[in-house]
Design a protein that fits this description.
By secondary structure, the chain is mostly helical. It is built from 21 helices and 2 strands. About 80% of the residues lie in helices and about 0% in strands. It starts with a helix and ends in a 5-residue tail after the last helix.
């Protein structure tokens, strides 16, 4: 217990300081010039549309979260009877803490996502204005605006988990090792909000994008971000609500869920070590709070990395961002080393701390590997994207065939990378100390998420620069300014793709960690002796368990179908409105009449919010229904059949989700960049340059349109689904026994 007074203030203090630096960066960005009146008019329209959508989306999410919190309270307080192993003595007390942590997790996720988007929609105009005089100023403004989101998301996650831990420790007599069992709802609340934020934002952004591209580029033959396109403002709004608010909620729940899962495994490992007379020097509290301390040091590394980014006017902006990421990664590794030596030192196993440190390095290297794999499959410098561009010569059908093939192919390298990372970290952890294998994988996951704040800053950089380019073009700025924003926009497209690769890699490692935490939790509730006997493995040969696994795989496919169809339905409304406006106002194409941007924004908003509810409810409801149905209607001598069935659903659903998300993300990204490759003027056929408005370009636009809901709606939503399944099962595990 001696480590607790030292660690909790440190964790909370670094969180508060990080939030203070985020506020400083926001004020620094907001003090910059806002450009011409024409630029401000476009920026104001984007800002108004984004804020209106997020207000309506958050109201919808709030209602659904309140309903679910009531269900959780009733299930824990009145349906489930009290258990001897419960952290608290009564069912109502258990229900109170689980429900409170769920509500706080949901609220913090909403706040973090909203703040990040609030700053991004005010950074775009300042980036556009800075581009008129300096590429370096525009780069720094865009990244620091994105850093507000990155720092807010990770610091709020850390503050929430650390604060909840401190509250439970202060107001209850719960044994230290059992405190994580009362705060698992925090990760579930964050996952719940993230799912709907990613779904709603993804449906919005891709419905607007598809409508703008098909009618604007293909039918009307006008450029991207042309002010004559009625859907162009909706498209620019979508970049913010999908890539800023949605991705922010995604990584918020990644860090929150991973923190709690690692705390559960850390508490188990430290308890087992004490029973074996091999206690850690920092005690159970030190090992359990190690994930939070390591995450806090990672935030400090990200802050330093962000402040080092700058570029020359003639240099590649991506090189500056990569340099900042390298600095962040090196400092995060150094902080990780300090944390492992401080909190994981064990006199009875003197090699344990540095072996766990190696596990953390494996996590960092895994993130680098995912960045490289994503670049290979989504940038047009490499074979896969060029194959799709070449297939466009013979039309849309061959473009789509080639894109699907690339998407299927690109699952191999990520799976091999994840496999090596999990196996290596498990074996090293097991060699470090008895029962240390699962904690080794947890430490690797922490290593991968150590740079999350900087990665999210780079991700939000993408929509900021995309919006800046749109503002410059729509306000009629000179060509040399557009070239600067094009360079930044091109880098932003790369950073968005890299973040998706990073997100799926971290989701895969975190899902294995959370699955292990679920198994540990069930064993704890069953009792040490009985649990060790009956719940060491999941027997897929049992018909009930096989069905659970089958339902997990089905959920991934069915959820993906609902998400993609949702984009299609919402996009149909956009296409109909854009066509109608062109017919109603012939002067739009002549430049004598203005399109009704607000009407299109409202149509996309209503469509996205309507379409996000069904896939979200299916994702949340399936594991709950499977667990409760098997518990109530299937007899079982060991009383674990429901818990095993849910474990199979979680395990197989995770595997299918990783593969499907990789296919959708990289396949969609490859289609997008095949189109950009043709538009770049570098694509040649028989020695002749083939560019915009050519037949291969039109075929590539069709392929890009197919890939849009893959890479920006269904794929990113599956990252959340994978972790949502884990957090739901962690929260509801006691109900399945």
């Amino acid at each position: 217990m001696t480590a607790q007074p030292q660690l909790v203030p440190l964790i909370l203090g670094i969180s508060v300081v990080s939030l203070g630096i985020a506020v400083y960066l926001a004020r620094w960005v907001l003090a910059k010039d806002t450009g011409t009146p024409q630029m401000r008019a476009i920026s104001d329209a984007i800002k108004e549309g984004a804020e209106a959508f997020l207000r309506r989306q958050n109201r919808t999410i709030g209602v659904l979260a309140l309903v679910l919190s009531a269900v959780i309270f009733v299930l824990y307080g009145f349906v489930r009877s009290s258990h001897d192993f419960d952290p608290v003595s009564s069912s109502l007390a258990m229900a109170f803490w689980i429900t409170l942590s769920f509500v706080l997790g949901a609220a913090c996720s909403v706040i973090a996502g909203y703040v990040g988007m609030w700053v991004s929609i005010r950074t775009n105009i300042r980036t556009a204005s800075a581009a008129r005089t300096s590429l370096n100023d525009a780069l720094r403004i865009a990244l620091r605006g994105g850093a507000v989101s990155g720092l807010f998301v990770v610091a709020m996650s850390l503050l929430g988990v650390g604060g909840l831990y401190a509250i439970v420790a202060a107001f209850t007599t719960v044994p230290t090792a059992k405190i994580p069992l009362l705060i698992v709802g925090y990760g579930f609340g964050a996952s719940f909000v993230a799912l709907f934020a990613q779904l709603g934002g993804g449906i919005y952004t891709k419905a607007a994008d598809v409508g703008a591209d098909l009618v604007g580029k293909v039918e009307a033959g006008i450029p991207e971000d042309d002010p004559r396109n009625p859907a162009v403002i909706a498209d620019l709004v979508g970049d913010n609500v999908g890539d800023c608010a949605g991705r922010g909620a995604d990584l918020f729940e990644s860090t929150a869920a991973e923190n709690i899962g690692a705390m559960l495994l850390g508490a188990t490992l430290a308890s087992l070590a004490e029973r074996a007379s091999m206690p850690f020097a920092a005690g159970i509290v030190g090992v359990m709070l190690f994930p939070l301390v390591a995450r806090a040091f990672g935030i400090i590394a990200a802050i330093i990395g962000i402040f080092t980014v700058k570029t020359r006017e003639d240099a590649d902006p991506m090189a500056a961002l990569n340099r900042g990421y390298a600095i962040t990664a090196v400092l995060a590794i150094a902080g990780f080393g300090i944390a492992t030596r401080w909190l994981l030192h064990n006199e009875h196993a003197p090699n344990a701390w540095w072996m766990f440190f190696i596990c953390g390095i494996i996590g960092v290297l895994t993130s680098w590997a995912f960045v490289w794999i994503t670049q290979y499959y989504t940038e047009y410098r490499y074979r896969p994207v060029r194959e799709i561009a070449n297939a466009s010569i013979t039309g849309p059908a061959t473009n789509i065939i080639s894109g699907i093939a690339v998407g299927l192919e690109c699952t191999m390298l990520p799976v091999l990378t994840i496999s090596v990372a999990i196996l290596a970290s498990y074996k090293i952890g097991a060699a470090a100390i008895v029962h240390g294998g699962l904690f080794g994988t947890a430490v690797a996951t922490m290593g991968m998420l150590g740079t999350a704040a900087y990665i999210l800053a780079m991700d939000t950089f993408g929509p900021i620069t995309d919006n800046a380019g749109g503002i410059v073009e729509m306000s009629g700025q000179p060509e040399e300014i557009r070239k600067k924003t094009d360079r930044l926009d091109s880098v932003g497209n790369t950073t968005k793709a890299l973040t998706k690769g990073y997100a799926i890699g971290s989701a895969a490692l975190a899902a294995f960690l959370l699955f292990s935490a679920y198994m540990d939790e069930v064993r704890l509730y069953l009792g040490a002796a009985e649990g060790a006997r009956v719940f060491q493995s999941v027997d897929i040969a049992k018909p009930e368990i096989f069905i659970g696994g089958l339902l997990g795989a089905m959920l991934v496919f069915f959820f993906s179908a609902l998400a993609i169809k949702a984009v299609g339905r919402a996009a149909q409304s956009v296409i109909a409105d854009v066509r109608a406006q062109f017919k109603e106002k012939p002067g739009i194409m002549l430049g004598t009449e203005k399109p009704d941007y607000a009407r299109c924004v409202d149509i996309v908003t209503a469509g996205a919010l309507r379409q996000m509810v069904l896939p979200g409810l299916v994702a949340v409801g399936t594991p709950i229904v499977v667990g409760l149905v098997f518990r109530m209607f299937i007899t079982d001598a060991d009383k674990t059949i429901a818990a095993e069935a849910v474990a199979a659903l979680l395990m197989v659903g995770t595997i299918a989700g990783i593969l499907m998300a990789t296919f959708l993300n990289n396949g969609g990204g490859a289609w997008d960049n095949a189109k950009k490759y043709i538009e770049s003027g570098e694509f040649t056929v028989d020695g002749k340059v083939v560019g915009k408005r050519s037949d291969p370009h039109k075929a590539a636009v069709v392929g890009d349109t197919v890939g849009d809901p893959f890479k920006d709606t269904a794929g990113p939503s599956l990252h959340v689904l994978i972790k949502l399944l884990s957090t739901i099962t962690l929260v509801l595990a006691p109900l399945f026994i």
